[in-house]
């Protein structure tokens, strides 16, 4: 009898063992590794022997030269990617940044710690999980702090589309195209220093005192937070008209604001294709925004906000044309205008026309020329401006030689000496972009850049 039970027991044991292995193997790690990427932009700029703090109106679509103010901007993106036996995968992404917006030329004394501007910061930290069986292999979910769906002009360098903040979302495929939904929040007053006030200054006998040591200090109440929220819907990659279309819709709101300043919406359509029928690529977009979404409609972050009078239209088209094996040209045409008010200014209009031809001398040397024209105007009195300050025309011509490991238009790393000439139509317009004397300025610099 015992001999008959042994095979049965062995079979049961084998079945149980195989079940346990199967149950555990689904979550077994197949691959697990780290990736490190990043960006570096070191801009040494001088005019008349002095380092420069201004960007010459570049963030406002007035110039398109090498005018980023950061003397030493460094970013590291670290990603931990894991794949499991059952097809589930996960990414943990951390983006750290130092020096963005700092214009000082620091030395080895370590004086950076005395300046609270552009310190080391964590800009993104999120987890994304995909391949979960009950959600579908094309579906992923994410949560944390991130830059979601960013797009920027090729010569202005301005991000016109993004959702920058803390939130969560889901992304999948519908009819073969990328579809997503996300909720992102941002606090415009985040990082503001605590404020304090003096309540009373009295001596021990109760009489008034002018001695600061006799004063009581009270921390001020921070008050209610004006938290911003964007509910994003997007659908990307729709093939049509020789290219593809991306659609974005953002419903925005802001807490603790009156009914005229607590909501808004923005929408954009982006068309991706070759360079207007020629060899290369372009990205063309139209966006509308109102209320809280006045800033180009789909540009959400701690800078968002606005009232019911705020309405804007945004148009942009940029890309790179491959003319010959050696000659390429980047271009950008951008318009941002108020349909009523924009950033508190009635009838505000901004537009930029810019080109950057690039010639490959050999594999390691590229010659560049950048030319741009920027215009801004508004109703008389906007932001307190009158006379010559109401309307601005800014011209910019720049010559540069890029020493690089790859002389393609986007070849990096590169070290690029350049000379940039900026000319305003009058002194008042020149003051608005940081020119101290006269209506023009010559900037000499060396821009070092790497992507990896």
From TrEMBL:
Keyword set includes Calcium? no
The signal peptide, as residue positions, is 1-22
Query: What highest taxon heads this organism's lineage?
Result: Bacteria
- What family does this belong to? Belongs to the porin LamB (TC 1.B.3) family.
The record's section on PANTHER family has: CRYPTIC OUTER MEMBRANE PORIN BGLH-RELATED
| GO terms for cellular component | cell outer membrane; pore complex
The way this protein sits in the membrane is described as: Multi-pass membrane protein
| GO biological process terms on file | monoatomic ion transport; polysaccharide transport
The UniProt entry, under InterPro entries, shows: G_neg_Bact_CarbUptk_Porin, Porin_LamB, Porin_LamB_sf
Query: What is an example of a GO molecular function annotated in this UniProt entry?
Result: porin activity
Q: What's the protein called, per UniProt?
A: Maltoporin
Provide the alphabetized UniProt keywords: Cell outer membrane, Ion transport, Membrane, Porin, Signal, Transmembrane, Transmembrane beta strand, Transport
Subcellular localization, per the record? Cell outer membrane
Per the UniProt entry, what species is this protein from, by scientific name?
Answer: Photobacterium indicum
């Amino acid at each position: 009898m015992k001999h008959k039970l042994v095979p049965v027991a062995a079979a049961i044991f084998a079945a149980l063992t195989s079940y346990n292995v199967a149950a555990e193997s689904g979550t077994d790690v197949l691959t697990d590794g780290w990736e490190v990427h990043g960006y570096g932009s070191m801009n040494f700029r001088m005019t008349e022997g002095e380092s420069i703090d201004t960007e010459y109106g570049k963030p406002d679509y007035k110039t398109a030269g090498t005018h980023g103010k950061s003397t030493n901007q460094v970013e590291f993106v670290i990603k931990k990617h894991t794949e499991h036996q059952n097809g589930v995968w996960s990414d943990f992404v951390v983006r750290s940044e130092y020096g963005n917006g700092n214009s000082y030329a620091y030395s080895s004394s370590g004086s950076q710690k005395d300046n609270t501007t552009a310190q080391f910061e964590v800009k993104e930290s999120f987890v994304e999980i995909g391949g979960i069986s009950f959600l579908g292999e094309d579906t992923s979910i994410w949560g944390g702090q991130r830059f979601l769906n960013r797009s920027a002009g090729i010569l202005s360098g301005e991000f016109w589309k993004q959702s920058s903040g803390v939130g969560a979302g889901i992304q999948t495929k519908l009819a073969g195209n990328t579809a997503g939904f996300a909720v992102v929040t941002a606090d415009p007053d985040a990082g503001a220093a605590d404020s304090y006030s003096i309540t009373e200054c009295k001596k021990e006998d109760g009489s008034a005192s002018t001695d600061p040591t006799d004063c009581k200090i009270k921390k001020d109440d921070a008050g209610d937070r004006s938290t911003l929220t964007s509910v994003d819907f997007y659908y990307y990659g729709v093939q049509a008209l020789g290219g593809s279309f991306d659609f974005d819709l953002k419903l925005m709101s802001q807490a603790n604001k009156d009914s005229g300043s607590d909501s808004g919406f923005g929408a954009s359509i982006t068309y991706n294709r070759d360079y207007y029928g020629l060899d290369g690529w372009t990205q063309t977009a139209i966006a509308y925004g109102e209320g809280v979404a006045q800033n180009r409609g789909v540009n959400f972050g701690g800078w968002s906000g606005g009232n019911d009078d705020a309405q804007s239209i945004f148009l942009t088209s940029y890309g790179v044309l491959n003319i010959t094996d050696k000659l390429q040209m980047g271009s950008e045409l951008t318009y941002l205008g108020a349909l009523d008010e924009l950033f508190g200014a009635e009838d505000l209009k901004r537009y930029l026309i810019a080109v950057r031809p690039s010639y490959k001398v050999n594999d390691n040397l590229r010659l560049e020329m950048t030319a741009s024209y920027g215009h801004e105007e508004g109703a008389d009195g906007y932001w307190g401006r009158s006379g010559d300050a109401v309307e601005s025309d800014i011209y910019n011509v720049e010559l540069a030689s890029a020493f690089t490991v790859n002389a393609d238009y986007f070849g990096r790393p590169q070290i690029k000496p350049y000379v940039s000439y900026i000319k305003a139509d009058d002194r008042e317009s020149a003051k608005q972009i940081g020119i101290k004397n006269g209506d023009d300025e010559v900037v000499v610099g060396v821009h070092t850049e790497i992507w990896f």
